[in-house]
Amino acid sequence: MDFCLKFDPATGQQYIASSKKGQAILRDPFTNKGSGFTARERVELELDGLLPPLVNNMKQQLERVYENYSNRANNIDKYIFLTGLQDRNETLFFRLVLDHIDEMMPIVYTPVVGEACQTFSHIYRRPRGLYIGFDQKKHIERILRHSPSKTPSIIVVTDGERILGLGDQGAGGMGIPIGKLNLYTICAGVSPFTTLPIMLDVGTNNEDRLKDPLYLGLRMKRVHGDEYQGFIDEFVAAVQKVFPKAVLQWEDFLKGNAIKQLNRFRDKLCTFNDDIQGTASVTVAGIFSGLRISGQAMRDQKVVFAGAGASAQGISDLIVAAMMEEGLTREEANARIWTVDSKGLVTKDRPELEEFKATYARSVEEVASYKCRNKSNITLEEVVVNAKPTILLGSSGSPGTFTENVVKAMARINKHSLIFPLSNPTSKAECTPEDAIRWSEGTAIVATGSPFAPVTYNGRKFRIGQSNNAYIFPGIGLAATVAHIRRLTIGMFLDAARALANQLTQEDLNEGALFPPLPRIRECSHAVACAVIKRAVKDGFADDDILENLNSSVTRAMWFPEYLPIRYEPK
Do 262 and 308 belong to one domain? Predict the structure, then answer.
């Protein structure tokens, strides 16, 4: 970068020292202020004459860009507008989204980012991040050194194979790392100067993409097996060499690859998979919050999963950890979880079970006592009737999975049942919150994976809390960068969940909401970061000197989108 942040002891303020002037300043989204450059800056940086004469403050600029945003006809046009604004002026972009977070977060990430990934090659404007193709596997280290940030704090990487619930999007999956890193900045104040999105292009099996003449990715079928793993190994080795202090987040990999890479590298560098661990942490936070309403303990819960993918594995593992901290043995905790996939209830007599499914598979003896039509394919409704769960979690990606009969069965069993249709985007949700509340006659405690409007039932208004990973992973990343955490453990994600649940006020709970409103998300990230750092020190993965003045240290590390003075300082 041709600029850096410095501190002026005379004024007690930070400023940006730039080695460039004129058009170069305006072309860099990190230094461009548009009409916001002061009169002094315009002279010193040789901008006079290149801008309209009137100096605008940020409030005036925000009014202008919000007007332009509001005039866009549909969500994808709004996404394109925001992307264009970010390409011109990073600070103004982040301030706009932060000031309108309820309205714009669904645009910059789920659900609209899904459509953006599908149309990525058609709406592409300017490059952002790094693209590493399978055909460049011998040059990964060199490519990493091309990063705009020479010392990135957080890297988000995808191979584009399982984008949200939309499947293989190939190179279009780059929209996900870009969007994730935007949320790191919006929600936790991780500096955008230090984030790096990466797309690993190993081909695509999406025929629509391969046939598209505008498709920007490699025109080849996906690489699998040893070749694929060798490529991933080369990538991680290069990251460890070039960016040894960076946090590496895996995003939207196919289930088998996601689990394999996490297990392969979790003890070798500071890395995590948000689809597995972030989803688990925010879901368990929602459960902790729901139990504050029902008045029950975690150890007494019975949990049924609809869907047995990577996210279900992560959630299950964290629930088990929470139950064990409340006194259950691992075997006792495992026995309180049921999984239902496309073939019905997962049972021990099913051949060739994956390790995760085998862990929570039900015994033949138990299933023999079930009242059901077909013991070889026990439906979700039959599992609910026989197992009598208190919690129903959806990670199936199949809309309509939580039928009226399923929800009513949960309501008959429990005074308050926790029903979480977590699949996203919105079109993939197992049911709508309105259906869950209406079918349960207002007794269901609901959280969703995508944003939904409040629901009114029998005169009571329910605010629907979104089980959004953005409540967790930005705080995790903030913690890792502030405390230089060496490894991320399951205990850190569990303490992050507790910290988030503790951010719920009684007013939130009275509204039936299991998560704080989005305008409070930076407070949540601060609490999560502090909790994770404390656990990291306890687990021996961070130095204990960070605990001195911890709250203020985390606060100081949180970047806020406001213009800093810019001074010309030649190299």
Answer: no
Contact 418, 73 (CB under 8 A): no
Q: Considering the domain boundaries, does residue 287 fall inside one?
A: yes
Give the CATH number for residue 251: 3.40.50.10380
The answer to whether residue 563 is catalytic is no
Beta sheet of 13-18, edge-to-edge order: 3-8, 13-18, 566-568
Name the domain count of the chain: 2
Q: Which two tokens stand for residue 151?
A: 């010392």
pLDDT score at 543: 98
Q: From 154, 418, 225, 409, select the one nearest 305 (Cα to Cα).
A: 418
Q: Using CB atoms within 10 A of its CB, is residue 284 exposed (0-12), middle (13-18) or buried (19+)? A: buried
Q: What are 446-468's pLDDT values in tens digits?
A: 999 988 999 999 999 999 999 99
> Tokens standing for 504?
């719920």
Q: Is residue 195 in some structural domain?
A: yes
H helix count then E strand count, the chain = 26, 17
Are residue 221 and residue 306 in the same domain, yes or no?
no
Closest CA to 108 of 190, 504, 530, 117: 117
241 classed as catalytic: no
User: For the whole model, what pTM was predicted?
Assistant: 0.95
Please identify, among 434, 469, 504, the residue that sits at the C-terminal boundary of a domain: 469
Q: How far apart are CA 303 and CA 293, in angstroms?
A: 17
Encoded amino acid at 352, one letter: E
Q: Tokens 């910059």, residue?
A: 108
Tell me: do 249 and 305 sit in the same domain. Answer: no
Helix axes 255-265 and 310-325, enclosed angle (nearest 10): 50
Domain range for 405 is: 277-469
Quick: pLDDT tens for 299-331.
999 999 999 988 999 999 999 999 999 999 999
- Last residue in a domain, options 444, 469, 494: 469
Same domain, 79 and 97: yes
Are residues 261 and 377 part of one domain?
no
Contact (Cβ atoms closer than 8 angstroms) between residue 206 and residue 220: no
Q: Do residue 302 and residue 259 come from a single domain? A: no
Supply φ then ψ for residue 15, to 5 degrees: -150, 165
Euclidean distance between the first and the last CA atom of the chain, given in angstroms as a whole number: 12
Q: Are 82 and 164 in a shared domain?
A: yes
Residue 521 resides in a domain: no
**Phi, then psi, of 8 in degrees rounded to 5:** -100, 110
Q: CB of 181 within 8 A of CB of 195?
A: yes
User: Are 263 and 206 in a shared domain?
Assistant: yes
Confidence band for 164, pLDDT divided at 50, 70 and 90? confident
Q: Which of 109, 131, 471, 563 is catalytic?
A: 109
Confidence of residue 87 (pLDDT cuts 50, 70, 90): very high
Of the candidates 20, 137, 180, 428, the residue annotated as catalytic is 180
CA distance linking residue 337 with residue 296, whole number of Å = 17
Task: Tell which phi-psi region holds residue 402, choosing left (phi > 0), alpha (psi between -120 and 50) or beta.
Answer: beta
Please indicate, yes or no, if residue 7 is contained in any of the structural domains.
no
